[in-house]
Amino acid sequence: MRMLTVRELAHVAAMLSVLVVGVRCAGEPEGEESEHAHLTLEGGLLVAERGALEVCVEVAPTLQGQGEALLGALRGDLAALEDGHPDWEKARYGQAPVKVRLGCPGGAMPSGRLEAKGARVGSGTSAHPSPFRTFVYVLDDAKADEVLGGQQAARARAESLKVGDHLVVDVSTALVVRASALGTSSFQEEWLPTGLGLRPLSAASEPGTADFMPKSYDASGVAK
């Protein structure tokens, strides 16, 4: 999956904005409840029905006894990012307290080698995506060696929203991470921001745009 240029992002944003308006105007008589969620490009939550940044966490069976401690470490990482990332408010993550919950939709842990290009971990495409912007899967070292190889973490697609007959947009990100990486500066500054659709902190001072623009795909799964 190739990264989009700033010019391409602007084009996709304009295209999706028109499409979303069309979807809202067509097939939703006034006063009737929508049959699907709505894409929003105003910030990083990506789904209009999401009112706060919510993160779900799945823990490897071998780490179940450490679940609360791992949640605490992740909350600390999120708090550090909230305090230190210049795009936090731009992404509208500060509009409500961040929520972290144990257990993700589907619940299945990743297995086998996680390839970087086009990898998917999570519940797939839905007309009603979960409230979770980010799914975090915490692995013990043995499982991490199998899934991540020598890496500390990897980012993948978690949930997508179908916004047209031929267009699917990623609206949730998956982060697969070694338990030992939680609480480290590399996780706080690089992996966690990218899992939330933000620029890594090491690049935050450089010119450019935040990465919370969603990636879009045609019906065949090819990135737009």
Q: Could you characterize the architecture of this molecule?
A:
The chain has 224 residues and is α/β, with parallel strands linked by helices. The protein has helices at 6-25, 67-84, 141-148, 185-195; strands spanning 54-59, 99-102, 120-126, 134-139, 153-164, 167-178, 216-218. Helix 2 crosses helix 4. The longest helix is centred in the first third of the chain and has 20 residues, at 6-25. The protein is globular and about 40 Å long. Mean pLDDT is 79; it is low at 1-33 and 204-210.
Chart the SSEs and their pairings:
Elements: H1 6-25, E1 54-59, H2 67-84, E2 99-102, E3 120-126, E4 134-139, H3 141-148, E5 153-164, E6 167-178, H4 185-195, E7 216-218
Parallel strand pairs: 1-2, 1-4, 3-5, 4-6
Antiparallel strand pairs: 5-6, 6-7
Helix pairs in contact: 2-4
Region (Disordered): 204-224
Protein name: Lipoprotein
Give the end-to-end Cα distance, rounded to a whole number of Å: 9 Å
Averaging pLDDT over every residue, what do you get?
A: 79
- What would you call the structural class? alpha/beta
The fraction of residues assigned to DSSP E strands is 15-25%
Helix amount, in percent? 25-40%
The count of helical stretches stands at: 4
The tally of beta strands, per DSSP, is 7
Oligomer: single chain
Calculate Rg over CA atoms.
17 Å
Shape: globular
